[in-house]
Amino acid sequence: MMLKIIKLARKSPISARIGFVIIVINICAAVFAPVICPFGETEVVGDTWLLASADHLLGTDHLGRDMFTRLIFGARNTIAIAMIITILSFLIGTVTGFFAAIMGGWADLVISRIVDILMAFPTLIFALMVLSVVGTGTLPLIVVIALLDSTRVYRLSRAVAMDIAVMEYVEAARLRGEKLWWLMRDEILPNAMPPLVAEFGLRFCFVFLFIAALSFLGLGIQPPTADWGGMVRENAGAITFGIMTPLYPAAAIALLTIGVNLIVDWFLHIASGLKE
Amino acid sequence: MNMILKMVFKRIALGLLTLLVISVLIFVGVEALPGDLAEAILGQNASPETVAAFRQELKLDLPAHVRYFAWLGGFLTGDLGNSLANGRPIAELIGWRFANSIFLASAAAVVSVPVSVVLGLLAALKRNTLFDKIISMSTLSTISFPEFFVAYILIALFSVKLVLFPSISSLNDHMTFVEKIYTITLPCLTLVLVVAAHMMRQTRAAIINILSSPFIEMARLKGLKQSRIIVLHAFPNALSPVINVIALNLAYLVVGVVIVEVVFVYPGLGQLLVDSVAKRDIPVVQASGLIFAATYIGVNILADVLSIISNPRLRNPR
């Protein structure tokens, strides 16, 4: 397995390698944030909107906090929450998707119609409405986005599992008297992995951009927690004075998304077996 | 023809049904609120009189299904109730803002649709050339950018450095059409960039899909001219997927305006929705949410209907 991965990585195109480097840098920043950062996450260190200098690599923000420090801590908070949401949404989506595909009949019909309705509604608007009712906060944010996003995972995993569920070996396992959970975990899941992995990357990007958008609207991760979308919002006023501060966190969001997209593109390219 | 009509009607009926279910969802969402809505919004320290007044204002003392039908009926007749925040009729708040949002979205659509369909088509025809690679790289980066990043780059460039366009797009009734267009240049450009990237990629994929299908290969093997293959064989079949791509992106545009409106302080429905969510002005949130949903579903129905009509296989059944 390990050898296979190394072999694949050797043949990877330059774009995928760039993507890999971007992701590794981001993960390092997220994990080692307290070690790298010269200041505390919410520590006020100087005047507002200082320009970049040796002390403050990226200047300071609207309250005089070190922008570089906030950016690194922002990586930690934003990526961690996006990751939790994506994993949660995959847990919900694949379990219900596989379940629907194996059971068929009424169970499939009911779940699929519910998902159809949720998907007919623009995600951002839905999230805004739910947040207006339950109020803003990290927990509602995680639950709401995970639930909304799991509808897309459901669609894919159901479609993939449908093809697998009719295979002879699944039939054999059924006749052997295996339980539902075994069918999902040991028969369907291993064979559904490649498309699900690629989808995981895409969903992560989507969730990540989505949290950024909500935070930017002031309805996502709440201050004083450093978070890239929120940092853009807080510093947005600076741009009209020609100070580029809000562009740094926005660029960080874009960079990480590009990185993940590059890897996913390469992965899809391999998995599709190539049309061109 | 009869079959097509039937499919079209079926699609429209399904769309209306979805909308109805969503209106129930929007309504029930508020019911499902943990605890009492009045207390949740007014806070635990609110006096009993305020809570009672609030409950009466929202008609919380009536049973749920009665309120739902009253709400829906009001919606259809244009009476949306009053805002909690300032007590003004919601219809008055929403009407002109919705018109502004539609104005912005359609301006973006008018620019982005032709540009991206043509560029996507060219990229598909000149597959794997330098031109294609540039298109594919730049669209991949653009779809990775959050809308507000694109917006702030444009502001930094065009309104701070070059001082060409305003960074705040406030409209008023005294403006002429040209002045309005000038004011919304930057938000419109932001939407165009974001939507066009998606549209180009999808158009390219749809066209490549058609070009690699057996009947095109057959036409090639018969020795037909390239131009004839494209115009007579590929185009009629590509029409349906391309229309679908366009409509999907228009639906996206309807929602995409929310963030762009906030960046440029544009007086649209999205801005109102975001403000109301922050203020927890739930009647306004419900009303504007339902309008967004209706527009979104409407565009999706239109997409499906157009693609049913433009599909040659459905139009000429065997």
From TrEMBL, chain A:
Membrane topology: Multi-pass membrane protein
CDD domains with a match to the protein in the record: TM_PBP2 (cd06261)
Family, as annotated: Belongs to the binding-protein-dependent transport system permease family.
Annotated coiled-coil segments of the chain: none
Any Pfam family matching the protein: BPD_transp_1
Any one annotated GO CC term: plasma membrane
Primary site of residence: membrane
Native organism taxonomy: Bacteria, Pseudomonadati, Thermodesulfobacteriota, Desulfobulbia, Desulfobulbales
Superkingdom classification of source: Bacteria
Protein name according to UniProt: Peptide/nickel transport system permease protein
Localization: Cell membrane
Protein's GO biological process: transmembrane transport
Domain ABC transmembrane type-1 as annotated: residue spans: 75-268
Keywords: Cell membrane, Membrane, Transmembrane, Transmembrane helix, Transport
Transmembrane portions of the chain: 79-104, 124-148, 200-221, 247-268
Automatic annotation (TrEMBL), chain B:
Domain ABC transmembrane type-1: 98-303
Matching Pfam families: BPD_transp_1, BPD_transp_1_N
Any Gene Ontology biological process: transmembrane transport
One cellular component term from this protein's GO annotations in UniProt: plasma membrane
Topology with respect to the bilayer: Multi-pass membrane protein
Similarity-based family: Belongs to the binding-protein-dependent transport system permease family.
Name of this chain's protein: Peptide/nickel transport system permease protein
Species name: Desulforhopalus singaporensis
